[in-house]
């Protein structure tokens, strides 16, 4: 036990490598990817797949197998989530839209990791270590159910004759939905995790995640969204019409225990794990923007006089200092949240708190950066204007800023969802 | 490694300081502010916790090692009880810590033990000057080398316990550098105003204007000895102290208003059940945590001698000043009209909060 802020060696080494990737494989094509929405960065995808396969980094998948092998080695504190947060921050510093098309299962694999049985994990996650890069996605949002996830209408019933689940509904805004569900000869066969109700009368207790494999009849990508930013990332609408999956594709326990909200809690557990990671991606974009600002200020001979009393600073100095404070403090909150996850400490509060902070900080820093840079900020000649567009999503997905404030407020007040909605 | 858990020793200290803050400082704080004095026995009790003593090595009369991280933890916890009380308890640190940080070996041996081995005594320091462009790095109190010593000329403000202090560290501008000078209360030319300063808060902490008219200081009393000292580590430790206390005051205001919001009803529900209130509380908790992390990291960097430690201490202090203002302002807002009434503590915390941007030099860790 102690208070320490030393980046663990393996993470520092990984950061060094990832920075090169971010500079040479991401920044170099960033603008091109932004201008050609839905173009696929095959080079980056192939490279990351090979690299992650070689090192085991970046994927949530192989963790459960590895643990047992390591039993004899001297025990070091686990740093898996910390490593992931650093990795995502650095890749997003490169290009957050491209980071979102990193193979390895993304939110789909995270949902399996959070809700599945060990056999299911083996069955669904093994593919990410195979020859071709493979994608998975997570489908919660529907046209009538965004923040209010309890309002989802997608349903699943068991066809007892065939012992198959039959799923009907409409899912939207699915990150990597296209890459997961539409065959591409360069990619392995992906899947989506669809959250659906097996007992609408049971409310949240009836919610379960279902794995739907690419190629399942009735599961179709119907639309690709055009977006303000993160254009390299595909955002798909998926319609489910009598889509049939085998019985064991329901994640976890299929019996509905009324009163408990277990099914829903599993979905929410995914978010405890992924919110700090999403926060990290936003912080990567913010850091890129702040570094750009400082570089341009330095080129123009404008120095930031740290240490001066505030009432003696120029307006630009105050802005930059405030941006630094926001950036560093939000990053430290992310690190604390993932450190807790690594050490098995419940971190629902810290997870949502760092997402609230990162959502704010990322938008504020990028907005201020564009303002400070004048015409240079608004021009598409530099990437800053793109980072401003990319940044905003941080405060929207994985729970909007408001929803995460609700989660934080409930935690600090000891309120249930019913007491504070 | 990253790690966010105080070690065992720190936890023990935190528990002791926490008890003192809750059982002694907090109950005394309100009346102390109204009456303008803090009971001496509360101050003595705080001193006996040994926060400062534990940061001084045995060779100089203490029983530990200085750690900025421990200092930050302890000051946050104490300020959670009461800010004026925390400042009063820690006044001797204003004299001892800079000597410990940048003093010469002789100075450490001569000046630290008499303070550290005794009951609480008012040894203090003078940094602030009464000018809107006050800058610790561009002081208007000047020191001039003359003969085998220095001559100090100028005026200091907000000097805690100056009237009773046996000796004080006076910061002055020597050829453009801020340097400390150890000045006994008997020095000729040193005048402490008879009336205490009147500030927006901190009524329980007696502070004074002190003037220096050609005060002679022997060579050996220049902090650091003949070669003087680097002022940066001293200033950074002052800033960290402010940041830590800001977190403590903010936490006090946050917890009080959170509990109040769970009791108070309006329109048929607890006000905490209204998002407008709940979101304010969520943001208060978030900002407190953000600045606490920034302060911890800056302190850790000080302890490990990181290159950018001084800059980070500055950032932590600047961020903390904003944070504590935001949090204490909202706490008053959450209590509504009651927030504005002096019977409730939140308005005092709001007045305390604004001070933390200004009061550099009133605490050090
Ligand atoms: C690019 C992109 C990628 C996405 N990827 C995925 C994905 O991979 N998988 C997936 O399932 N979803 C995904 N989403 C969906 C995303 O999570 C939702 O858009 C988000 O949760 C908000 O839902 P909504 O859009 O329906 O907004 P709404 O829920 O309609 O919210 C509108 C506004 O009301 C506020 N609000 C809502 N409820 C409350 C409340 N109780 N209190 C206070 N304010 C409230 C919100 O904060 C927001 O400001 C993605 C979205 C985008 C844009």
Describe the structure using short key phrases.
heterodimer, A: 421 residues, alpha+beta, Butyryl-CoA Dehydrogenase, subunit A, domain 2, Butyryl-CoA Dehydrogenase, subunit A, domain 3, 3 domains, four-stranded antiparallel sheet, three-stranded mixed sheet, B: 365 residues, Butyryl-Coa Dehydrogenase, subunit A, domain 1, 10 strands, binds flavin-adenine dinucleotide
Overall description:
The complex is a heterodimer of chains A (421) and B (365). Chain A has three domains: 9-104, no CATH class; 133-260, Beta Barrel (Butyryl-CoA Dehydrogenase, subunit A, domain 2), CATH 2.40.110.10; 264-413, Butyryl-CoA Dehydrogenase, subunit A, domain 3 (Up-down Bundle), CATH 1.20.140. In chain A, 49% of the residues lie in helices and 13% in strands. Chain A contains 13 helices and eight strands. In chain A, a hairpin with a 4-residue loop joins strand 3 (155-159) and strand 4. Residues 60-68 of chain A have low confidence and may be disordered. Chain B is globular and about 75 Å long. In chain B, strands 3-4-8-7 form a four-stranded antiparallel β-sheet, with no helix packed on it. By secondary structure, chain B is of the alpha+beta class. The chains are: A alpha+beta (421), B alpha+beta (365). At the A-B interface, strand 1, helix 9, helix 10 and helix 13 of A face strand 1, helix 1, helix 7, helix 8 and helix 9 of B. The complex binds flavin-adenine dinucleotide. Flavin-adenine dinucleotide (FAD) binds next to strand 2, strand 4 and helix 13 of chain A.
Structural class label of chain A: alpha+beta
Q: What's the CATH superfamily of the largest domain in chain B, by name?
A: Butyryl-CoA Dehydrogenase, subunit A, domain 3
Order of helices and strands of chain B: EHHHHHHEEEEEEEHEEHHH
Strand order of the largest sheet of chain A: 3-4-8-7
Under CATH, the topology of the largest domain in chain A is which?
A: Butyryl-CoA Dehydrogenase, subunit A, domain 3
Average pLDDT of chain B: 97
